[in-house]
C-alpha cells in the first residue's frame, strides 16, 4: 500500500487546490444567479460536479489506499426538476462530499509538503556517493560532502530516512483513508438505512431459496413416496412382491427426504446453537477449520436467539472464506459484550485483500447483520492480516 499511496499523497495538494478554485467560482456564481431561472440548473450542475468529484475520490481511495467506500446516495427520483433538486439538497451525503473536497486543500497541502520533503531528503542523501564519484572525476556538481566516508554515512542516513518516509506515508494514508471514510461514506443513519434495506432484500432472497429447496427437493421426494405407497397399496393383495419393492423404494425416499430437511434446517439454524449456545457452536466450527482457530466467548448470559444466529453465521462464512482464499496459518474468534451489544471479531494472518463486493459473501453478512441494525466492518489491507468485526446491538 505504501508505494501506491505515495504518488497520491504527493499530488493531493494540487487536487485540493484545484477543487478549491473550481468550487469558489462555481458556488457563488450559481447561488447568485438563483434569483433568475438560470441559477437553478447551474446550482444542480455544481452539486452534481462535486458529487462526481467525490465519487472519483472514492475510486482513488480504493486504488491508492486500499479503502473501499460505497456511494451512500439516496435513490434518484424518476423525473421532475423539483424532485431532483430536493433529492440533491436533502441528501446529507451531498454536503459531506462538499466538506471533504474543501478539506482536501489544507490536508492535501500538508500531505504534499511532507511527502516532498521526506522523499527529496532521502533521495539527496542516497545519491551522495554518486555525486562524490562525479566530483572525483572532475565533473561539476553541487557536492557538499568532500569525502568518501562522509558520502557513505550520508547514504546510510538516507536509507534510514527512506524507511522512516515509508512509515510516515503509511500513517498519512491511514489518516486520509479514515477521514475519507467518515466524510465520503455518508452518515451512520444513512448507512444503516441502506444496510437495512439490503438486509430485507437478503431475507427475502433467503426465503425464496428455502421455498425453492423445499419445492425441488423434499417436496418432490415426499410426493414420490406418496405415489409409491399408493401403488403398493393397490398391489398389496394381487402382487405382494412388487408391493414390497414399492414399499422399500418409498422407505428409501423417505430417508432421503429426511436428510434433505435436516440439511435445510441446519442451514437455517444449527441445533447445537439452540441447545448449547455460541461457545459450543463456534468451537465446533473452529474444530472443522483447516487451520488452528482460537475461540473466546466472553458472555455472562446468552444473547437473544437472533443475535446468536447472526453471530454464528458471520463466523461460519468468514472462516469458510479464510479457508478458501486467505492462505492463513492461524485465526482467532472473539465474542464479547460491550455497552451496545455483542461484538464479534474474526481475525486471520492471511494475505489480506478481502473486499465487500455486491452479491459477495461478506456483503451478504453485512446485509444479515443489518436486519437487526448491526454493522459489519472489514479491515483487510494487502499483505494482511484480515479482521472482520460485527457489532450487533441487542438487549438482554
UniProtKB/TrEMBL annotation:
Catalytic activity as recorded in UniProt: ATP + protein L-histidine = ADP + protein N-phospho-L-histidine
Gene Ontology terms: cellular component: membrane
User: Does the record's keyword annotation contain Heme?
Assistant: no
Look up the EC number in the record and give it. 2.7.13.3
Keywords tagged on the record: ATP-binding, Kinase, Nucleotide-binding, Phosphoprotein, Transferase, Two-component regulatory system
Instruction: Supply the enzyme class, top level.
Output: transferase
This protein is called what?
histidine kinase
Species, as recorded? Nonomuraea phyllanthi
Amino acid at each position: 500500500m505504501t508505494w501506491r499511496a505515495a504518488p497520491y499523497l504527493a499530488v493531493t495538494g494540487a487536487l485540493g487546490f484545484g477543487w478549491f478554485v473550481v468550487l469558489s467560482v462555481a458556488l457563488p456564481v450559481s447561488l447568485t444567479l438563483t434569483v433568475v431561472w438560470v441559477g437553478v440548473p447551474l446550482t444542480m450542475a455544481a452539486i452534481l460536479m462535486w458529487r462526481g468529484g467525490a465519487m472519483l475520490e472514492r475510486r482513488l481511495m480504493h486504488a491508492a489506499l486500499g479503502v473501499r467506500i460505497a456511494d451512500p446516495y439516496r435513490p434518484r427520483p424518476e423525473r421532475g426538476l423539483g424532485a431532483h433538486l430536493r433529492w440533491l439538497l436533502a441528501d446529507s451525503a451531498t454536503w459531506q462530499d462538499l466538506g471533504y473536497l474543501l478539506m482536501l486543500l489544507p490536508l492535501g497541502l500538508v500531505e504534499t509538503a511532507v511527502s516532498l520533503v521526506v522523499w527529496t531528503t532521502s533521495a539527496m542523501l542516497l545519491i551522495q556517493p554518486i555525486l562524490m564519484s562525479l566530483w572525483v572525476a572532475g565533473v561539476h556538481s553541487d557536492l557538499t560532502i568532500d569525502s568518501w566516508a562522509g558520502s557513505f554515512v550520508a547514504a546510510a542516513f538516507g536509507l534510514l530516512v527512506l524507511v522512516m518516509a515509508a512509515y510516515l506515508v503509511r500513517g498519512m494514508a491511514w489518516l486520509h483513508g479514515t477521514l475519507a471514510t467518515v466524510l465520503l461514506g455518508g452518515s451512520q443513519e444513512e448507512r444503516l438505512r441502506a444496510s437495512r434495506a439490503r438486509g430485507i432484500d437478503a431475507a427475502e432472497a433467503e426465503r425464496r431459496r428455502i421455498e425453492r429447496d423445499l419445492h425441488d427437493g423434499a417436496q418432490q421426494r415426499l410426493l414420490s413416496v406418496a405415489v409409491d405407497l399408493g401403488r403398493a397399496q393397490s398391489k398389496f393383495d394381487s402382487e405382494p412382491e412388487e408391493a414390497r419393492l414399492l414399499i422399500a423404494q418409498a422407505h428409501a425416499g423417505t430417508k432421503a427426504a429426511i436428510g434433505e430437511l435436516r440439511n435445510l434446517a441446519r442451514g437455517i439454524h444449527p441445533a447445537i446453537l439452540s441447545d448449547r449456545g455460541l461457545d459450543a457452536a463456534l468451537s465446533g466450527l473452529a474444530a472443522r477449520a483447516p487451520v488452528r482457530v482460537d475461540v473466546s466467548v466472553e458472555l455472562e448470559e446468552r444473547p437473544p436467539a437472533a443475535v446468536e444466529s447472526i453471530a454464528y453465521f458471520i463466523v461460519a462464512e468468514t472462516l469458510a472464506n479464510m479457508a478458501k482464499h486467505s492462505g492463513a496459518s492461524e485465526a482467532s474468534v472473539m465474542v464479547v459484550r460491550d455497552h451496545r451489544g455483542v461484538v464479534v471479531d474474526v481475525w486471520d494472518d492471511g494475505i489480506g485483500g478481502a473486499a465487500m463486493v455486491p452479491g459477495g459473501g461478506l456483503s451478504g453478512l453485512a446485509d444479515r447483520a443489518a436486519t437487526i441494525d448491526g454493522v459489519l466492518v472489514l479491515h483487510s489491507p494487502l499483505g494482511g492480516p484480515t479482521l472482520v468485526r460485527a457489532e450487533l446491538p441487542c438487549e438482554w
